[in-house]
Structures are given as structure tokens and as C-alpha cells.
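Input sequence (146 aa), recorded before submission:
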Amino acid sequence: MRFLHPLLIATLLTACGPAEQAAPGGDEPETSGPTLADFAGTWDNEAMIEGVADPVPSTLHGSASASGWTMDLEGRPGLPLTVSIVGDSLIVESGQYESVLREGVMVSIRTAVVLENGAMVGKMMATYETPDGEEVVYGTMRATRN
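Predicted structure, C-alpha cell format:
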């Protein structure tokens, strides 16, 4: 059992290490993954949340840089988002805001999406701050360019 931790650490370091370069005169190295520019634009989004019958609509606005990303919910000012690229995924995180599904309850979201056939698709996690503590709810999202 005491050998398990070094083995896991070695495996993680190997998996997260730099990509190998192709030998001179050999095949080209793999192309890099998507960039923020690939996800930039205005997107009509629907979040399908576990236990909720109807999707929650929003509009995402993004640029080719990590600054200025926002999410618009009906009747509310744009919410600032933090974005980054991890592998082939766009990671989007919000700060806390009042939930559209639970009046008076604060929520924050985190999504991981990829580009698939011109759409952004992926998973989401909503963390609600309830009187009894945090409650995490999962869902999926799909967005199309506006």
C-alpha cells in the first residue's frame, strides 16, 4: 500500500508531462487543441439540470482572450465569467449569483464544454448555497452560435 502513492504520482507526472516532439524529418507533431478564439462569439445556450423539467436558457458572450466573457440570463445584467482551455475543453466558471430556479438562493456554475459539429456541448455543475450548506447539482449544456 505504501508503494501506491509514489506509483500514482509517477503516473500523473508522466501523463501531465510535455508532449513528445516528432523526430526531425519525421511526422509532424500533433496539432494543438482549440484556443479561446475557437470558442469566441455569441452563443445561445440551454442548460439541462438534473431534476428540472425545462432547460434554463442563457446567452454566452466571449472573445479570443480570457477577459470580457459574460453570461446573460433573462432580465438580468451580464454575469462575468472566468474561462480557460484545458486540453480540448473550454472551462467556464461563474461567481455566485441568485439562482433563476431557486429564489433567494445563491449559486455558482462550472462547465466543461467541447466543440462538436459547430456546437458547444458538455457537462455542468451548479453549486447552491443553501441554509443547510452547499448542494451540488449536475447537468449538461448545449450552445449554438448566434
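Checked by second reader. The two ends are 53 Å apart (CA to CA).
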